Amino acid sequence: MFATVDVALFRINPDVGTGQLELLLWRRKADSDTFPNCFALPGGYVFENTDEQLQDTVSRLIINKVGVEPAHIEQVCTVGNAKRDPRGWSMTVLHLALVPFSRSALVSDEQCWVPARHYANSTAQEQNKGDKNQQNNDHALPFDHNQLVTLAVERLSSKALYTSQPLYLAEPTCSLPELQRIYEELLQNKLHKKAFRDRLLATNLLVDTGKRIQGRGSPTVLYHIQQTGITTFERVMQGHKKD
Amino acid sequence: MFATVDVALFRINPDVGTGQLELLLWRRKADSDTFPNCFALPGGYVFENTDEQLQDTVSRLIINKVGVEPAHIEQVCTVGNAKRDPRGWSMTVLHLALVPFSRSALVSDEQCWVPARHYANSTAQEQNKGDKNQQNNDHALPFDHNQLVTLAVERLSSKALYTSQPLYLAEPTCSLPELQRIYEELLQNKLHKKAFRDRLLATNLLVDTGKRIQGRGSPTVLYHIQQTGITTFERVMQGHKKD
């Protein structure tokens, strides 16, 4: 039995489309006995002798393989079975982590940011079926990491529906239209502008900075985000109702 | 390193107050090398040789130590550290399970149902402080099980706020007032009758059986619950607003 921790770190890249969900991958060492040189989720063993708690393993991974300080980290779930790792029965505690784009610079040549959804959902299932002819084959990750990415993306989408969790992906100072684009990317759905504002402002996590950006229409308010935990909305986010 | 699974199985006992949240405990074997004869959460080792998946460990525990078939099981979180078990570094994957009262009969003399909240919250913290003079001392569980119960009860309360999860604690055929008492016990809060009905009926999980119970006022509708998964409410449950 061995235990590992894997981290799915996400950012929203505002320079791709209206903001694309991206995932950090890390290249496995050339001398690794499993999947050498392959890109995978940053992960590693729990060291019984030096990690007093599971959290110590997570902190070590963040420092050594992620390199940026996430704004938020949470457990998603634990996956354990005899087949996920060729070395034997293993359990991994999957964590998701979120970072604002401005703080997400790569710290190593052995890392890259990739479009998260290309590695999730049907891609992972296709890989498991061994369908080598799919054009999605480029998105196969070692072990069960496609499945882990899927689970993490599902958790993100689910929490975007009813909580303020996505604010951890935003810049410390931002506008409501910028936040709406983050939610729309996570939910893969257009949102009604006024309904979105009502939910976000009711959390009391946004503080008016007094600054305004002048665009084509009326000035856009800049808010400072108070990172004081995750708030549950009184009403969930819904897709945009067509006229 | 060793890995275990622990199960916090809950029911609502309608015969205590307006319905009390209860937890199943199981007596550890007399020849156990840790905490012999103590009552604890049903739990056990992951057997690498016979459990192909983590889920197989859970199923084995349910059969051997719980004895009833839960209506719902889900992972809560994983707790791992060097100190929680005197035998060494260990990780446990905590699960919560829910069963309707009518299906919750004990299957062994070595089991008991206890009031869940007596074993959660401040009790666990007091135990950790080693305060031996507290009258709550009777509620100390082995290992970190008080903390695990706290985490499971918190998850239950949190999900009651915005999902249909508590329906798994209800009888297959029941009335809205019965369901409201379950939610009020989980949320520890009175709910507004009409608001409660609106949220539950909007899930489309309740099917009118055509049967009615005649009480003091107008007849009460009996519904059949369709156990087809957990639905997120469009509006969260809130406490009762005072006049």
TrEMBL record, chains A, B:
Residue span(s) of domain NrtR DNA-binding winged helix: 175-224
Organism: Corallincola holothuriorum
Alphabetical list of InterPro entries matching this protein: NUDIX_hydrolase-like_dom_sf, WH-like_DNA-bd_sf, WH_DNA-bd_sf, WHD_NrtR
SUPFAM superfamilies recorded: Nudix, Winged helix' DNA-binding domain
Name of this protein: NrtR DNA-binding winged helix domain-containing protein
Top-level taxon of origin: Bacteria
CDD domains per UniProt: NUDIX_NadM_like
